[in-house]
Amino acid sequence: QVQLQESGPGLVKPSQTLSLTCTVSGGSISSGGYFWSWIRQHPGKGLEWIGYIYYSGSTYYSPSLKSRVTISVDTSKNQFSLKLRSVTAADTAVYYCARTGTVTGNFDYWGQGTLVTVSS
Amino acid sequence: SYVLTQPPSVSVAPGQTARITCGGNNIGSKSVHWYQQKPGQAPVLVVYDDSDRPSGIPERFSGSNSGNTATLTISRVEAGDEADYYCQLWDSNSDHVIFGGGTKLTVL
Q: Cβ separation of B97 and A113 shorter than 8 Å?
């Protein structure tokens, strides 16, 4: 059973960089066949895809966040990470990591989510 | 960019059938996935590739997709089905993921 767990600071100051890590267990990122994704959800709002990465390092980002986002992968630790630069209060959200099938394009396993608040 | 449109809310009495729609331009030519999200929890995949169910999802959940509308159907609705439901697809033209705005299902 694949499990994903987000970790990182729950509070980030405006203009700084939000950094989160997703640790995958029960399966190897390096095995291929899946993208590894970040999704966020503003309080009381819908789901917003941020981007995803393949184990090889290939990345795809949402056009609306592309200029501020970097997703990276560390296959040795079976982790992938999100960096979102120059954050504002509008980036306050629950951030989820998830596994995405490269063929199906759906998110079959999700982390529990972590709330990140942007505030001074 | 591609847009998916869902009704904000759907209400249904217990035991009845709920239908949640997801509209998009020629969506019938794409694979649509559906998620259930209960308060404070991560979304759960309930239907993928228009009409397939992951292991563990009750047969009461089904999907269809044709023309400009995909539909999630929940038969014999139970109180525990009350949740937000999201449609999603992968736009192969841009390699981007698209989510619908979500529909809140209320069980009366």
A: no
